[in-house]
């Protein structure tokens, strides 16, 4: 099991994590290179524009920013404001505490 898998499992079991695998696309909005504290999603939590989240994409986990929200999806942008597409809310693993 990789570190990412371990962190995802921890989030799914209700634990907070410190995500240390932020990619270059999100770094422009991070204040420091330190790991980002992530808390689990609470039930049917409402996501709002501007919230940084950790979401799954295939076998990866990515930090991105919620841009738009519909009933079951969120449009994601990277740290440069470039739209990366839509994901299901169920793919959101946690909320960044920054």
Structure description:
The structure is a single chain. The chain is mainly β. It has one domain: Umud Fragment, subunit A (Ribbon). It has 1 helix and 7 strands; from the N terminus they run αβββββββ. The protein has a 7-stranded antiparallel beta sheet, covered by helices on one side. The radius of gyration is 12 Å and the shape is globular. The termini are far apart. 27% of the residues are buried. The model has no long low-confidence stretch (mean pLDDT 93).
Could you give the topology of this structure?
Blueprint: H1 3-12, E1 17-19, E2 36-40, E3 52-57, E4 60-69, E5 73-77, E6 83-88, E7 92-96
Antiparallel strand pairs: 1-2, 2-7, 3-4, 3-7, 4-5, 5-6
Number of helices: 1
Could you please say which CATH topology applies here?
A: Umud Fragment, subunit A
Strand content: 35-45%
Question: What is the class in the CATH system?
Answer: Mainly Beta
Largest sheet: 7 strands, antiparallel
Number of strands: 7
SSE succession: HEEEEEEE
The parts where pLDDT drops under 50 for at least 5 residues are none
Number of domains: 1
Q: How many angstroms does the end-to-end distance come to?
A: 28 Å
How would you write the strand order of the largest sheet?
1-2-7-3-4-5-6
Shape: globular
What's the rounded overall pLDDT mean?
93
């Amino acid at each position: 099991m990789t570190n990412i898998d371990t962190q995802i499992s921890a989030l799914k079991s209700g634990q907070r994590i410190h995500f240390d695998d932020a990619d270059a696309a999100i770094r422009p909005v991070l204040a420091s290179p330190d790991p980002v504290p992530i808390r689990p999603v609470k039930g049917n939590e409402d996501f709002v524009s501007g919230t940084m989240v950790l979401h799954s994409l295939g076998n990866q986990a990515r930090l991105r920013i919620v841009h738009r929200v519909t009933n079951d999806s969120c449009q994601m942008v990277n740290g440069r404001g470039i739209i990366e597409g839509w994901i299901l809310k169920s793919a959101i693993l946690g909320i960044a505490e920054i």
